[in-house]
Protein 1
Amino acid sequence: MIYLKSFKFPNADMEFNFFMSIMRTCYDSFYPFKILSKNSFEKIDFEPITIFYGGNGSGKTTALNVIAEKVGVKRDSIYNKSNFFVDYVNMCEVKIHGNSIPEHSSIITSDDVFDYLLNIRNLNEGIDLKREELFEEYLDSKYSEFQFKSLDDYEHLKKVNAARSKTQSRFVRKELMSNVREYSNGESAFRYFTDKIGENGLYLLDEPENSLSPKRQVELVKFIEDSARFMGCQFVISTHSPFLLSMHGAKIYDLDENPVDIKPWTELENVRIFYEFFKKFEDEFS
């Protein structure tokens, strides 16, 4: 499914005319101006899966954030916009299929995944602390002498009886919520994507390979391909992962080229480096 048909960034001439019209000299940074125009990245024609490939500083994340702002998709993490960000976005042009982008569409960044993993870690640390307290409470309740004196002691009496009628593990499980530490960081990160990506939506993914092992990256590739093919989803992805770049039917823009060019994944520099490395040791795999 295609919700986002095309997108135009301002070219170098448009940027020059803009700066001539405002004549501001008190800024030393005009981000995101001059990032995408330096390699003449001016127009995108989207497919169900479109990928921005490039090294650090190539502008692939910038392009993704500009598109997200222009089409108004949801984001969880705060994005620090420069003084000129809104001016730049207003100069962009977008064509969409139909009347609007699906409401539940979103951009998912590395910060979103990191915050999610951090929240799980903090929650687990709190659970572990509470567990230790419950272990001590179990021993105190089970082996201490307790005399019921008033109704104020009723709750404590229930815990004493519970401790004396249950094993330590059963007592703690009953009093404590289940530990959410069921998955590794990589597994949790993968589940974050599968939970956030629903049917019939536009999803912008910024370097989703971060925190994922090669095995999980392969699984994410299959999930994205199936979501685009069977669930009515469209994806715009920034990445330099060979696994994600290999996605079937993906249209790849090489932002390292000047001008930016569309390439098959097997011709990209990062992929060729991996290929040549493993080719060098081919005999050891035989």
Note: The longest strand covers residues 4-8.
Protein 2
Amino acid sequence: MSNSWWLNPCKAIDTQVVEQALARQQQLTKPAGSLGRLEPLAVQLAGLQGRLKPSLDSVWIGIFAGDHGVVAEGVSAYPQEVTGQMLLNFVSGGAAISVLARQLGAALEVVDLGTVTPGLSLPGVRHLDLGAGTQNFVQGPAMTRAQGELALQAGRDSVLRARAQGAQLFIGGEMGIGNTTAASAIACALLDIPVVQLAGPGTGLNAEGVSRKAQVIERALAVHAASRGDALQTLFSLGGFEVAALAGAYLACAQEGIAVLVDGFICSVAALVAVRLNPACRPWLLFAHQGAEPGHRHVLQTLQAEPLLDLGLRLGEGSGAALAVPLLRLACDLHGQMATFAEAAVADRPA
């Protein structure tokens, strides 16, 4: 039996600092509320960091990769070998997230939880080898409980390394051919939304491909009907190693006191799992963007999440979250560096 660490208490937001930050916003040389959503963002980050003037100098990006047995059902436009090939691209600096991490001065860690490529050993990648990808969840559970708990722990371990480096913001990214199918299946099971509303093109399926994907998910939901509503069992039955690692990372961030910037559809499904497992983690989650995958909107609505960007992204890798980092940094700078009315000797209100 596991120790179920993911149920441990999450760190509380510093409400005193939130009040001080709100008061500061009222004193800055601008009309009240004129910076729109940037104002509550800065206040939330102040409360999460426990300091009146928050900053996001140290950003950690953890990419989790894994393969999916359900790819055997023809649900992806790409062959499975791409997962392993992209791991090399991440550490060689050629992937979108590699470029973004460099531009942001962010730490980039790549964790391979289990791919179908045999004997993969890449310098700069942490290979955990939980299995040669998950099992085909149309025929049975995607992973054993032991594998699922190891994947959750892998996410937590990444966060502990981030904390040791003084990270102020954690971004999780994912890579795994077939993972929009796994994420859609989890979302359907937890949200009770019809499959046709959630299944989308992923990395580029045509209409026929999307229809086949929806049928595969319907079959999987029927096979795993008994675990419906149980977030942990649903994760292990229908998820991917990387989805479990992301959920573990988000929960660990809330427990360790590190703000999270959630990326696209797959990461948002992992966040949904995390919130169902331990609702107290929710205040630690900021949502970067609403992507092009149709299910993303439903997941964000359920989490009452207001995404920062809407750019029609569908890449994954943590790329959408990385794109939103400059916005968060500027929100902090405006909050911390603008003059107050008193400092600038500007009349506060019309006479």
Note: Residues 145-164 form the longest helix (20 residues).
